[in-house]
Design a protein that fits this description.
40% of the residues lie in helices and 4% in strands. The chain is mainly alpha-helical and 158 residues long. It has a single domain, classed as Orthogonal Bundle (Cytochrome Bc1 Complex, Chain D, domain 2), CATH 1.10.760. β1 and β2 form a beta hairpin.
Length: 158
């Protein structure tokens, strides 16, 4: 089945919880539940969060990444199909996915038989939003925005 971008956008809007913006500081505490399976490690191999677990993919740079595309990780076919159909992760989508991964994939792919290999769910919408915000705060965009040690923060353009 081929998925259009409009199908994915519509499914995401319909499935998105009210909590689209989370609190990264609170998400750091909730992420302790995620580190059993996931790590957030940058390109240099520095572990930013987690314990270098390998059950789930590295979440560094997940915001803006095509679903099911982290190199050398063996994903389930449903999440790969979602990515092939155009799903690119953002905080709102990750928030919805974390609340019920299988339901999210069924909705996004339109496949009632879709399944997620991730059985864990964050049942509180605010916990899911907070974890999404926390993981986003550790990504490459956050690294680029932060000044290097000893450097001044970039000046804002008026």
């Amino acid at each position: 089945m081929k998925f259009s971008l409009s199908m994915i956008a519509a499914a995401t809007l319909l499935a998105a919880p009210a909590f689209a913006e989370g609190d990264a500081a609170k998400g750091e505490r909730v992420f302790n539940q995620c580190q059993t399976c996931h790590v957030v490690a940058n390109e240099a191999g520095e572990v930013l969060a987690g314990r270098n677990a390998k059950t789930g993919p590295n979440l560094y740079g997940v915001i803006g990444r095509t679903a099911g595309s982290y190199p050398d990780f063996e994903y389930g076919e449903s999440i790969v199909a979602a990515g092939a159909g155009g799903l690119v992760w953002d905080e709102a989508q990750i928030t919805t996915y974390l609340a019920d991964p299988t339901a999210f994939l069924k909705e996004v792919t339109g496949d009632p038989a879709a399944r997620s290999m991730m059985a864990f769910k964050l049942r509180k919408p605010e916990d899911a939003a907070n974890v999404a915000a926390y993981v986003a705060s550790l990504g490459p965009a956050a690294d680029a925005a932060a000044p290097a040690e000893g450097e001044a923060a970039p000046a804002a353009n008026p």
